[in-house]
Amino acid sequence: MSETRLIGWPLVDLCRAPNGPRDRQLLMGEAVAVRGHRDGWAEVTAQRDGYPGFVPDAALTGGRMTHWVCARATHLYPAPDFKSRERAMLSLGTRLEVRGETDRFAKTPHGYAPRAHLAPLDVPETDPVAVAERLLGTPYLWGGNSALGIDCSGLVQVACLACALPCPGDSAEQEVALGYPLSEDAPLQRGDLLFWRGHVAWVVDPDTLIHANVHHMAVAYEPLPDAIARIEAQGDGPVTARKRLKAAA
Question: What is the pTM for the complete model shown?
Answer without folding.
Answer: 0.95
